[in-house]
Amino acid sequence: MNRYPSVAMSVLDITTDRLNESRQRIQHLSTLPVTKRIAHILVTLCNKFGEKHQRGLLIQLPLSRKDLADMVGTSAETTSRVMSQFQEDDLITSGRQWVAINDKPELLRISAED
């Protein structure tokens, strides 16, 4: 650390970012309704992995409803209901191994509304 302070500072920055993300995730899991949590995770995944596609912003990850449920701290059935509602509202389109975000601004609004 003394020899390479810039590396030490980079490691501390990364650790700080991860700690802040964990703190925010815990806060979301304990205080936000399921619909907001799912909207939030979809926007987060879209920001990290979304690719422009004719279907919308495509998140091409092998995510099951159970995987999403585990990410937001709810049951697979509840996640499936919310995702179906998002699909009915034309916010998303989904398949077996992908989700396309059709209306990111609306998902952002849902995840942020009070």
UniProtKB/TrEMBL annotation:
Record-linked Pfam families: HTH_Crp_2
Residue span(s) of domain HTH crp-type: 32-105
Record's protein name: Crp-like helix-turn-helix domain-containing protein
InterPro entries found in the cross-reference section: HTH_CRP, RmlC-like_jellyroll, Tscrpt_reg_HTH_Crp-type_CS, WH_DNA-bd_sf
GO molecular function: DNA binding; DNA-binding transcription factor activity
Highest taxon listed in the record's lineage: Bacteria
PROSITE patterns cross-referenced by the UniProt entry: HTH_CRP_1, HTH_CRP_2
